[in-house]
Amino acid sequence: MVATEYYVALSAVLFGLGAVGFITRRSAILMFLSVELMLNAANLAMIAYARQWTTAGGSQALQGQGAVFIILAVAAAEVAVGLGILVAIFRNRASTDVDLLSEVRA
Description:
It is built from four helices and no strands. It is an all-alpha fold. It has one domain (4-101): Helix Hairpins (Orthogonal Bundle).
């Protein structure tokens, strides 16, 4: 059985990569992908801690998995709405550069 610390370390690395990707990228699509990577890193940490809690004899072992299910549902809705908005903007502007999108104010 793999130790929980390894899962948490992998989660931290994934979260760091997502944060760096979000800060350094100017394309809105790559920024969305970086946010998804950070959400999945948090999910991995929650599942790892829920697994540790279960093996330690926790009485409510599925709380981590329930939270992950909710986060995945919210992330899927965010991607659907966000990509729909990006497609509409790309049709009008032919670019997804976030620096150019600041000019789209009403």
